[in-house]
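User: Predict Muskelin's structure from this.
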Amino acid sequence: MAGETFAQLSLTELAYTVVEWSSFSCHYYPHRILEDSNAQDSRWSSKGTSPEQFLLLKLVKPAVLCSVTFGKPPKGYLFNLREFKIYVGEKKTHMVQVLHSGLYNDDESETLPVSRYADLDKKVMIPCFYVKIVPIANWKISVNFFTICNIKLLGDTNQKLLQTARTNFAKLCDREATRLCMRFLRQKRCKEAFEALMKQENTLLEHPQLTELYNKLVDHGDFDAVESIIRKSYADNLFSENMRKCSYTPEWELLHSSSPRPGVRGGHQMCIDSEEGKIYLLGGWNGNCELSDFWLYDIKSSVWSLIQEDTSVHGGPTARSCHKITFDTVNKCLYTIGRYVDVTRDTPASQLRSEFFVYSVKENSWKLLSKDTANDNGPKLVYDHQLSIDEENQIIYMFGGKTISTGEGSDYSGLYSYHIPTRTWKLLRGTSNQNIKTGSCSLKSRIGHSMCYYGPKNQLVIIAGQRNRDYLSDFLVYDIDTDMVEQVSMDMSQNQGPGPSFTLRANVDPLTEEIFVFSGRELDYKLSENSVQNSFWSYDMICKQWNRIYHNDSDDASYWEEMKTVEPSPRFAHQICFDTINKKHYLFGGNPGEVTNRSARLGDFWKLTLHKPCIKDLLNRILFLVRKQKYLELCATDHISALKYLQNQVAEVTNHNDPAHSTQFRKLASCLCQPREVGDVFEQRSELLEQLFSFYPRSMKQPDKSLVELIL
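Assistant:
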């Protein structure tokens, strides 16, 4: 029963009743979420936002819950939830969180898959009789109540499936309860009771190697044996997962070059040919007019050269900004589509065509692939969209952006693919999100987002952007083979990632399977205002973890004047590209967001190198912790031996090139000059053990929770 897909389950709509609630306002009763109506008053509204508000639903028949569909209020009454949690369980006193997400702030209903499993291996399904919905935050901060419209539940009521789920879930709960008791007994040094419980229940608290580590360190203080275990773990590659989670250290370098070189601009485009070491830059807006110049930067010689002063003269695109380009390293071709047009009633239709160009590096020439892609089953003219290319299969993907027309208003563009060999467009996802596959999330179009092609799994990664007036902080993965969308996160900041952003830029390293993100214009929900600040992040697609590599939110003009050759000043509408071979990031230009000078643009060019400690450095860091504890224990009994140990063994595993680590080492010497009691060695060693455990994979360790934390 491990890891069943939606297609393998017998899904049906689940009937339910509303049995408990926190509060309700006026005639917006809790049971009104059962009404499948577009009426403005067909909803539940709470009296306030605190204390915790909730709705508790009881299924008519027990099931394994698979997804929840949220209806939306009609336009003009948008009180959608930006954040909420869902819990399920067979007993309302024992419920498991299966979803922490939010809704987009529009009037289209949304179906969100929920986690069906209670374990990391996805072998134990959660039987469900109760569903608890807990709203946390609204999109509109000033609204002091929560609203939920029609709720539909989808799940599997198969009795055989349910019985298996009940049995396995009960065993899992029993095993985890036993492990919590074992952890508590060991902390209390009740060794006999610990071993008796382990033998009776035939359950291990953790991997045997970690149990041995505990015995040698905490019980016996055998530091040599502890080091042997750690070295064996190192040889067995057990620290590789922790190594992936280590953050990078950034090193910025301002790249200088003599004229000619590109001028200031924002809304431009930049791409890289890593194999040849060439960066291409096209067009943009300099604060006064759109540009049509085309540049090449040679990484090896650090020299810019002007390929064409005006691409339109050479059969290429006219001056433009907010367009997009992508580079095909296989055929050495650059593709570009889209642009911003300031439309008036007098704008001729000929200026609103979606032209599609390709530039051949080998032939040094432009070719118009389509006068208007809308006539070729492709997108209409758009701006602030995104392009990514699958070079192996020769397919270009284009998503989002706003369409431009002479009519009132504008619409968003969907997800398209373009097959290069046959020159054919295909609409993969429209903007209505109708008839999407069961188990798939919605793919909401937007502008100012990021999109990368993730080759290892043939997926598109879509991050943040702006939809209508709302800045988004979602992280979506579109699986091209299955046409399924996974919502990794509705708000990345809840997972230590970037906050809501516009013109955030992202690149992917297919070898290390990491996404790198450079911030743009950000929104602070709490302050309800946006700002321009610098942040650089990495996301590990294997470990599913964000790391903030660099951040500077200073708005002091004098500071940035002083640091203008040290680190880039805050900006948005910039461009960044990644050299996948030499692992360097390149940043050019952008809009500094100056309130007093809205036409200001930047023309600086930066290289970013990221440094991460090697696995041997990590081993020394772990050994340093062990030897530090042994040294501190020696200080309490034998100062001479402690001094020799510090000068030799501790110094041997200290990174003296790291200022923080070197300072920590030097401070240890003060322990020799201060009276020091032995203290509670058991407690000190236990704290060290927790530090050592943190370097091992989660699957090997004891439970994160403690029995004491569950009491009150």
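The radius of gyration is 29 Å.
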